[in-house]
Automatic annotation (TrEMBL):
PROSITE patterns: PROKAR_LIPOPROTEIN. Belongs to the short-chain dehydrogenases/reductases (SDR) family. It comes from Trichocoleus desertorum GB2-A4. Pfam families: adh_short. It comes from the Bacteria. This is SDR family oxidoreductase. Keywords: Oxidoreductase. InterPro entries: NAD(P)-bd_dom_sf, SDR_fam. The lineage of its organism: Bacteria, Bacillati, Cyanobacteriota, Cyanophyceae, Leptolyngbyales.
Amino acid sequence: MVAIKDQVVLITGASSGIGAACARAFAEARTKLVLAARRRDRLEQLADELNQEFASEIHLLQLDVRDRPQVEAALQSLPDSWGNIDILVNNAGLSRGLDKLYEGDVQDWEEMIDTNIKGLLYVTRSVVPGMVARGRGHVINIGSIAGHQTYPNGNVYCGTKAAVRAISEGLKQDLLGTPVRVSSVDPGLVETEFSQVRFHGDAERAEKVYQGLIPLTAEDVADVVLFCATRPAHVNLSEVLLLPTDQSGPTLVHRR
């Protein structure tokens, strides 16, 4: 395990779920954290917790990754001590709806495409040139099993995560010959706010997704993200497909 103490880590979608768990994991590793999300109050609460537990150095960005001018302005205006991002965790993402394509809500499509694909691209485009110029850096994209295999009614969400997988591969190829690494961590079922967001706040429907099985936790995914980031410089964990033991594919789960 390579020490990453005092490296600057930018995490998008840091206010909850996998993003918040990654913030905690990197805080424990004594990195400096740039935490970005739309919900400032949730970020402030998380920062307070991390400060109390780890005395972390934290810079908060209230940021909607879908807004390109906002992304560019926020990242270009980071103070000097925070601007040299060493590790980027592209975590911001969501799913909306579970409908047949020909019955889908176009607004749901727009939100998924703008967040999962375009938002990831905007942040990556703003951060990676600095990594190349400094000769160090690591981009870790949070993908999904949905990027490996499409499941019924997953159509557009699966399409966005397939795009994340392709973008990760393309970026890796473009960075060949530089020291900058690219990893994709692709989880299966993780019990976070994901399903509540997908079902527009329907908690009862969201709970049924995880009934009768033991899903991954956000902390499980964060452990893998941290593991990727702490490998020696010559080692790149290119792609990690992470599933709960009770799952063997997008639609293959064991329920008790």
